[in-house]
Amino acid sequence: MDRRLFIDAAALERQPYLFEAAIRPSLLDLAEGWAAAGPAEVHGKAELLDSEGLRTIRIRGRLRVGVSHTCDRCLRDLKRDFDDSFQLYFYPMDTIEQGGEVAIGIDETEVGFYEDGGVHLVDVVGEQLLLWLPARSLCNPDCKGICQVCGSNRNIAACDCRETFADPRWEGLRHLSYKH
Ligand SMILES: [Zn+2]
Ligand SMILES: [Zn+2]
Asked: How would you classify the pairing of strands 111-114 and 77-92?
């Protein structure tokens, strides 16, 4: 893999690393249902915060990327663009495994881990996208989805199908009849 995309903790001891890269969509491994619609453009600065201590790598920069996905309910294709600054901290995995103290005052959602002496920019982008991507991907919070019976998109046309949903807890009540 491209060494220019690798942030080497040892090299950061001498000076911060300024990076600028466009990462191919095929390199990005996003959450299920999501894919990068084009290269992820990222630039910023990596620094070693405490070379004598934990060796935390702080990465601050800006990330611009378009992602595509489908609505969880109606399967419509959707695209979403992100363009914002970010800040992430990476702790060395081995220090954490040995019970090393994690710096306090850092938002844990902004924390990742690194192995093999550094962190790869591909992983930095992946980590930040995890924070940005919503847990559910819906075209609209009120999306009515696809009818399980006739397959029509209920956002476009209402259908008269009745979805029979047999809840086993009610099975025992089926024999009951009501007198009015
Ligand atoms: Zn939808
Ligand atoms: Zn229907």
From this structure: parallel
